[in-house]
Structure prediction request, 400 residues.
Amino acid sequence: MKKNPQTELIHAPRKAPQFISTVQPPLFRASTIIFEDTNALFNRHWTDDYDYSYGTHGTPTTFTLADNIAQIEGGDYCLLAPSGLSAINLVNSCFLAHEDEVWVADNIYGPNMEHLRNLETRYGISVKVYNPLKVDSFQPTNKAKLIWLEAAGSVTLEFPDLVNLVKKAQAHNILTALDNTWGAGLAFNAFDFSDQHLSVDLTVHALTKYPSGGGDILMGSVVTVDKNLHHQLFRMHAIQGISISGDDAAQVQRSLASMRVRYEHQSQSTLKLLGWLKRQKEFVQVLHPADESSAGHHYWKEICHMGQSAGLVSVIFKPDYTLSAIRKFCDALQLFKLGFSWGGPVSLVMLYNLKDMRVLEHTHLQQGLLVRFCIGLEHPDDLIQDIENALKQLNTPQRE
Prediction:
């Protein structure tokens, strides 16, 4: 049957072979996925490992990335989300209900705490805060359903007593969720992180950071080894219509090959900065889990056997330095750019006031304003020189 030229544009008579061997896997962009016949339509099920039914459920591009992220983190199942925070929200909405109790570390990622406080106000979920360095501060009741762990902690970088926190949660049948963005699946295996083969139930990872590596893609993941948990998450994932762009997935997939090299390079650069920062008179405290004086160092050493750590280091200025002085310091930096996130090629800096971020008293933290450095791929000597030049812009400390 001869077809109209318009129809032939859509149903082309010639079609190139679809599968060749390439360095990078093919990119699939799809909302609608065509079924071969009605048997293919009706004999599928959403629990199939690769349910090609609609773009939101997955394509070869997104499933390939999910499989690779699961492998990197030591898990078996992975779901992808549009951002790290979206992945966090997926876990909270899937496993928390009215009057449930959720425990969060005092140094938890701020937007996660904000989301949970919103759930507490609107839906009657009870949010409890614990000190990640003191297991006794984690006192779950019979309503406790979930504990959030973070290794290392957000901004102040304490490494938690992960072994005993997970043991206690397991003894109370509480789901353990680890924000694994810092470790990225490279510093330690969250699903087998001790001689006793302890495992968290699931990890959340902001793929925006190290997996992406370019500072230009937003994405998150939830990984688990438990098929039942994966299916619960997948149903909520589908109900909420969570999906990612195939183009974004292909970009992250392309970056995975260099992820470990970048992580190790930034880790080593950060350690070099750490030694220099500790010698500067303007800082009353330098925070990094590999430093023996940092809180939780022995827990880091116990878990991160290869000495790996993300490219983050925080400093607390002496309390004599005013907010305006610290802002002047940040503005004077040339290589460090003022911005959130980490894991990209460009080094970043951010200023925080801990008084606005913490609920519990932390006696190990000195008084003063905190600045976090996120180390990129620049040469560490140049970054040290940049900080040194910015410190020269500070006048003699004066109290406000």
Notes: Residues 154 and 295 are 13 Å apart (CA to CA).
